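Dear colleague,

Thank you for sharing your sequence with our group. We've completed the structure prediction you requested, and as agreed, I am returning the results in plain text so they can be pasted directly into your records. Please verify that the sequence below matches your submission; if there's any discrepancy, let me know and we will rerun it promptly.
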Amino acid sequence: MEHSLTHLTNHLRHEIDNLPPQMQAAAKYIIDNPGDFGLNPIRTTADRIGVSSNVLVRLAQRMGFDSFEALRRPFRQTLVTDREDRLGQDWLKDMSATDGFSAAQASFAQNELNVASRSLRLMKPQLVEQAIEHMTSAKRCFVTATRSSYALAYYFHYAGRMAHPGFQLVPRHMGSAIDDLIEAEPGDCLFAITVQPYSADTIQSMRFARDRGLRIVLLSDSDVIAPGVEPDITLPISTRAQHPLSSFSGAMAVLECLLGHLFAAGGDAARQRVAEYQKAREDTGAYWRPANLPRIRKP
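Please find the predicted structure tokens below.
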């Protein structure tokens, strides 16, 4: 049997009318939520559908698989990048040879791959290790950025606070980051993000933090962004883009690696915090869930 994702979903669509009601609900969930199906364990998937785990096992067998994991594997493989380095870039060549719009898409995609690769190559383990040490050893680690870079800081803080509860996003509201840094003490840390053209607010925050004895980790496209700004660690990134603004592909790739290190350093305590955050969100209805099994209309 061909086990490509396209073949499997097409097969499910073709067979869904011939399945028992609970299997129909399971098949519809898989078709509608292939990403979640690839990520979640069998009990989570069964709970979200509203069926027993045995229904998923029987559906897998009906589809010609010997286990639930065998059915889930093709969906899971589309979400991971473990094999990307061995797949080559022929897809870019094929795309660029199609038409003008496709050629432009291939050029944009190649640029983002280059930006991310260069930024990751610039991540020297010695610098990263020192940066992680500065952040994890601090009672409070303030995360700051402004304008377009603020989205990066927001995400890094949102995820990072589960690894290190001392993470604080500044500015918290509509004021200046300095308003929130007034209570900072020597031994605290400031993680700042800024790229050209460099934010005056972020530069002022870094100078203020230096005067108060904070250790500073900077994520930027340059080692020298302004006079009097002397971070302890600078993590360099590439921001070259084929549009008038900066590309953040490299910055996001570096931040994801830093989050990996932070959660590794956080160990069991970090994993417990993730579980608690997740439970609180589910208990308060943060995620949408269907109240009843979906009805499958017969033609």
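Summary note from our side: Residues 28 and 155 are 32 Å apart (CA to CA).

Kind regards,
the structure core
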